[in-house]
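Possible regression after last week's pipeline update?

I re-ran a chain I had predicted before the update to compare outputs. Posting the input and the new output here so someone can diff against the archived version. Not blocking, just want to make sure nothing changed silently.
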Amino acid sequence: MQPFLKKAHGPLATSLSYYSNLIEHCFLLKSLDYAKFVHAQLIKVGFNTHTFLGNRCLDLFGELERARDVFDEMPKRDVVSWNTMISGYVSFGLFDDAFRFFSEMQKAGIRPSGFTYSTLLEDSVRVFEEIYQWDSVLCNAMISSYAWHGFGENALQLFVLTLRENLRPTEFTLSIVLSAVSILLPVDQGSQIHSLVVKSGLESDVIVASSLVEMYAKFGLIDSAMKTFAKIGARDLISWNTMIMGLAYNGRVSKALEIFKELLIGGPPPDEITLAGVLLACNVGGLVDEGLSIFSSMEKEYGVIPAIEHYACIVDMMSRGGKLKEAMDIVELMPHEPSGLIWGSLLCACEIYGDLRFTERVAERVMELEPQSSLPYLVLAQAYEMRGRWESLVRVRRAMKEKGVRKVIGCSWIGIKNHVFVFKENQLLHIGGKDIYFILRLLIQEIEDDGYASQQYDKVRAVGEVG
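New output (post-update):
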């Protein structure tokens, strides 16, 4: 530290990197006296107004009073500044101050980050664990907090503990837990919670029932989802939307459109989520004309202004249908800035329908929006390879390597009983591989007997022979 302090009055003392190094050395030495000296020097040369250095000083001062002084002196505070103070209060057990700072942070127009919420959740957990006697309200609130902030596993663990303590879950808690189950647990666990719902007499509750519909739809058990939906007495728009979306995602296009017609006849007015589900159904079913008709009548018929997700769905639908020019016209005329997802839909269709110039144009746009995406490079490489453009192929692969873009290995999985089987792209060997690929070859043969063939099946057949 001494060599740095000797230069405090030299030419380097006006360098940001100089003071950044000083602060890092204070961390190593864990010296509060040195920290105070460095902060005094920052004030002297005017660097105390620099947000990054100010944030590092906040980290440096373990004493909250001193850290608060540094915080108050900072003319510009970012989300890191506020998070550091909130984290400091939580670590000292000053939970009221932490939540007060959180409130002040929002009033100052600073949007909380994931770290902010996780810190406050940690705060809540500490308080919760110190409470001697739990009650239903407290546990339900804690389960909801876990789930809302992405800690679904913790939510489920606490839910099980509350059941052991004979604490009754509310309708809202069951809804939250069912949503977490559909992501984290196999279908058997979801069925057990459904049994609990029935025992609690809440199967016809619209909130719980909608969550059951969503859970079964995510598991692919669409018939169970429809049976649950049929038992809902007074259906709200959320339950209608959940059923339409579930049917669309599971490829039950006709039924999704049928439910939509039932909604128009005897249900509440559809909203943007309803129409997104209907457009998704048209997309999955290849119903381009019907999808375009619904899309063009959204505002006039239903009072819903098309949002970016509606445009994304309609562009994807038209791209899949080979109508690239029409899809491009929509992209160029849409009132929103096209997202990477929209350009990606066009690009995927280019592999099948697009000419080279069109493919290059779309690929360049995707590269601008998503620099680390491997999709545009892979599509271009395939397009050049198919046309024998070897120099262009080498150039694309070189650019991909120079920019550090890596292909994400695709994978899919299926849960059978208590086992989850994961399949990675181009995987040559797999547990139970011989049986799996034997069944695949049988399925491919049936598909080919029906008159459909693809080069992709040759790869599967070859892998099956290796495995």
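Follow-up from reviewer: compared with the archived run. The two ends are 62 Å apart (CA to CA). Marking as no regression found.
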